[in-house]
Amino acid sequence: MKKLAIAIALCGSLFCSPVYAKTFVGVLWPMFGPLPAIGLVELTGEIRLMQDVEVATYLHQEWPDLVDAIARQPPGTKTVVIGYSLGANASVFVANKSKYIDLIIALQPSMLSWNPAVTGKVGHYIEVYNPNPWMTMGGMGSKKLEGPNIEYIANNDSHPGAQFNGEFRALVKNEIAKLTAQGNAEIAQAEVQAAAPPQPAKPPKPPKPQLVAAVDSPVRKPDPKPAEAKRSGQKQLDDKDVLAFLVVLEQAANAPAPEPEPAVATVSDSAQPDANLKNGAVYLDVFSKSANSGNLPVQRPLTPDDMRGYAVRAYPTRTADNLNQQGY
Predict the structure, then answer these.
(1) Side-chain half-sphere exposure of 253, counting CA atoms within 13 A
(2) Whole-model pTM?
(3) How far apart are CA 78 and CA 64, in angstroms?
(4) Closest C-alpha among 38, 132, 121 to residue 84
(5) Three-class SS of 223-291
(6) How many Å is the Cα radius of gyration of the chain?
(7) What domains are there in the chain, each with its CATH number?
(8) How are beta strands 122-129 and 23-28 bridged, if at all?
(9) pLDDT band (50, 70, 90) for residue 307
(10) How many CB atoms lie within 10 A of CB 30?
């Protein structure tokens, strides 16, 4: 039971612990392996002590094995290649045969070896060399590699003594530490993004209102009658005119009717218009001269002159003074 509890605790710590990026470092020895490279052996031991770093060493002619090792690394692993002398020359083949390498540091590649130009994808390529071949045993540490992404650092070290240079060792460890920290930051950011709650979807934007062409409303034409009456010069009836006319009609209705004159047999009724002024004839004459006479053939507006003429003709003795008093 105790062993089961320990196993469960280990599994829990394994799954609950944060995942850190690992940096893989491949070291390429010079000719004859690590024996003539005691300073590089010491540097390799110091790199092994760094956190989250894995180190593997290869002979310079074993560079294809290093290419395979880099290809087997899990996604997110930072890759570093360090070569010295012929191992520095072999780093070019590793770069050209790999998909991508984050960092390559080449220490004094040899002029006695043939090298193609760097065509592989490398994040940062650093070469430390001595441009004076007489100081490197005839050019064993004076080869200048060719490539578009190489940072050159010249020194005055002999070829055997370059591996013991303190600046070179500090450069290697600092670059590896920066690369490892960068990988850990990327993993931590990915974990934070994965643990963050999903953002709510934004509501869709309302559709833009479409412009509808305005329909022209029918324009009501003005009544031509007032305009025609204005052009004809006739005066339109108003409330004052109608009131005066009604007063005249009321007075005429209350007045005693005149005695009828004897009719002449030989003269027709149409020849004597004053003898036919009876109540029926009055209403007929009013309607015939009104503004709207129905189906009668002649239609014209009723004016004050028409009303005054009718009153004078109908009641010549009773309306003259009344009309003068009203201002007509």
Answers:
(1) 9
(2) 0.56
(3) 19
(4) 38
(5) CHHHHHHHHHCCCCCCHHHHHHHHHHHHHHHHCCCCCCCCCCCCCCHHHCHHHHCCHHHHHHHHHHCCC
(6) 61
(7) 18-194 (3.40.50.1820), 234-257+265-325 (no CATH)
(8) unpaired
(9) confident
(10) 29
